[in-house]
Amino acid sequence: MNAAPSLAWDGAPAAEEPVLPMKPETPRAIHLKDYRPPAYLIDKVALDFDLDKTRTRVRSRLSVRPNPDARGKAGALKPVPLRLDGENLELASIALDLKPLGKKDYRLTDSGLTLLKPPSEPFTLEIVTFVDPEANKALSGLYRTNNVYCTQCEAEGFRRITYFLDRPDVLATYTVRIEADPNEAPILLSNGNLLERGVLQGGKRHYAVWRDPFPKPCYLFALVGGDLAPIASSFRTMSGREVALGIYVEHGKEERAAWAMDSLKRAMRWDEQRFGREYDLDVFNIVAVSDFNMGAMENKGLNVFNDRLLLASPETATDTIFEAIEAVIAHEYFHNWTGDRITCRDWFQLCLKEGLTVFRDQEFSADERSATVQRIVDVRQLKTHQFAEDAGPLAHPVRPESYIEINNFYTATVYEKGAEVVRMLQPLLGSEDFRRGMDLYFERHDGEAATVEDFVRCFEDVSGIDLTQFRLWYSQAGTPELVCALRYDKGKKTAELDIEQVLPATPGQPHKKPLHIPVKLGLLSGNGDELALKLDSGETVPDGILPLTKRKHTFRFVDVPSRPVPSLLREFSAPVNVTIDLSDRDVEFLMANDGDLFNRWQAANSFATRTLVDMVSILAQGKSSARGNRYAKALGATIVSDALEPAYRAEVLKLPTQADVARVIGKNVDPALIHRAHRALSRMIGRALGDTLETLYASMAGNGAFSPDAASAGRRALRNAALTLLSARGGKADAARLAKHYADATNMTDRAHALFLLAAEGGPAAERALADFRDTWMHDNVVIDTWFAAQAQSPLAGTLKRVEALTRHPLFALTAPNKVRALIGAFAAGNPVQFNRPDGAGYAFHIDQVLALDRINPQIAARMLGAFRSWRTLETGRRGLARKALQRLARSKDLSSDVHEIVSKILEG
Ligand code: BES
Ligand code: ZN
Questions:
Q1: Catalytic residues
Q2: How far is residue 626 from each of residues 48, 196, 620, 632, 889, measured CA to CA in Å?
Q3: Ligand 1 site: residues with CB under 6 angstroms?
Q4: What is the pLDDT of residues 138-164, one digit of tens each?
């Protein structure tokens, strides 16, 4: 008989329950291998919202039919129960083909509604539910923020609006009618194109009807209602269609939306030129809201943004924020093709839209700005977050095989490593076949809910290359290590390069198969020239790319006139760690001579890391070290080179973070020692390169009006990087320069940079600056977050007390995710020395906050817990205290499934 496919995804059999349910059932893991197509499809959805702060009525009319692809073994279409997801809903009525259903016809639980005997022919279901937007603090489903009604449905929020098949492989067209009080919500938006609008009850109510002709899964549904200020513009697509663009923000903030609008048009043009992708609706709207769990969301034709990632002016936003806005606007826009037009079959395929779209936004930023600097920024991010995740208890494959709470899988691995996996297809296939593969994917799967398999097959089909082994990148977790050695034979003029891939065990995956890895390399002669890469087989190495497939390879290069210095993993051609025994001299040589600028930065970064690791072990023995001076000297040569753009030089000047050093040390980590070493190295560099840094500080000063362009931002970045190192010297003049930098700042980039440095030092100058910043910005809910974060990240001993006090500040609220991230997140993830206090008070505080948050917003609570992802690498004392804190959390009653899943994995792994 039919295995009731849609039931395969559900929890325990339904029981009779009260109409207004309370708590979700015990969480159960969902497995990729259990995927079954839905037993029913929904082709059309008509929604009618009657907006009310605490009791919004939702009328939903669904065109349902049995899914012909979900027949049982015998091929029979015997009707099976129809199970609809629903949470936190008050059911008012349900009718089938206009006939009201009675209690006997369906079962209601706290997670859904099951129609026991649906017809075997297509039918219409009409369901009326009530929801309470004001009470919704989880910010999933329909909620209110800053007096604006808005929705967030990815991943499983639609079920908090109405009963539905809340899964991404159910695609329907939507017509949405919204009715509201025109004073409260003059703006009414939903997906697609506006069909009509009008006034009711003599102006007491009004309504709007929107229609989205593109079939979509319910996670892409969106609705917004509120008193918002519109910024309007338009875009002419490559085929000459005019698209109306609208950005909606809080009144008075209109000017701050200009950068987002400009970024949107550049992103739309870029997707046409680079990927041949044209926008498809007549309107594209973006709304900025204050309380939002994520950065932004790609709802079809109606993107919703966290206002922090949309509003920017020179006075209020740093260059980093300008850059982030450009990237996030692009990312969400690019989802229109990679996510909306082609969506995911199930949530295990999340990387299909997220990894691919991150890759696309990275490429956009690289084209808009400096490609090398972009690559450095992206690789830094990958290593700091994804490599750390992959090395700990939360490690999982780019395509996970099971989950309890899907919201916990919007991870650095799915996003960042997912983007790297797509990126590797370029060196493996060549750019032309890569583009042809993308074209085929768009053509073949448009309008479908696809899988990673479908995606990879497109590249196999256009190139004829077998990607079976490559697919392991999606299923094997852990960061591969390439252990390399180079031997030179002076007599034979040959160089042999051994590369062994070592694949670390990860939770649930003790043994791994070798991966298909593109390693881009160069060999440099003593005077810095590129040597020809001739293999003893007679072949050359096209574009310097060696595709590894075996566990061990030895490449024998011939006609090598002198001992070469290897430049490995150029452009970071694969998401792996490389180890090779290079002398300080070789590394200095690469820093000065490598023709691949990315690898020149990589050489500087590894040199700094190895210096810091050495300094930590010297400090651990109670000795002091002058190890940093050699690094300082090498750095000096790079940063004066006018041939290198300022943004690049700024990246070279930035030391690896303390978390990066901790990750490389990998065990028995003492965050206090790392902090001391980090400070000591900064001071040494500041002293050794004082004159150079002062010259840079002076010469990079801005003249004239602020411009957010990459070149101007690069100059500010270099100047601020110089300021950081000069301030680390701790002299009187340095303190005066820093205070003046704050006072004279004419933009937020300089002001915020100075504020963070001052807050880290403490003392009267810091207090003055913090008070000034608070007084200037306390009425701006976006900018004030910088004030919270600067205090939370201060490494001073009194920080925890201060952070505790700030949790009671009138501007702080656990219900506002941005505030939580700015204070609690910044403390736990951005202040290694105080979070990891040797007395464990940092851990205890953090767990208390997670517990409190879990009652309000489980998604954010679970995310905050990620601060513990590397706890097992700590030295024994801290490790014991962290374990105690985590166990206290794990034992707490009524944990959400979100927090429960993370804390269990962190303690087990
Ligand atoms: N689809 C996501 C937003 C999302 C994630 C909503 C999880 C609900 C649950 C969106 O496309 C996204 O990826 N946003 C990122 C920013 C992006 C530039 C990587 C975010 O919100 O952090
Ligand atoms: Zn995304």
A1: 332
A2: 71, 73, 15, 11, 43
A3: 154-155, 294-298, 327-328, 331-332, 335, 354, 358, 407, 410, 415
A4: 999 999 999 999 999 999 999 999 999
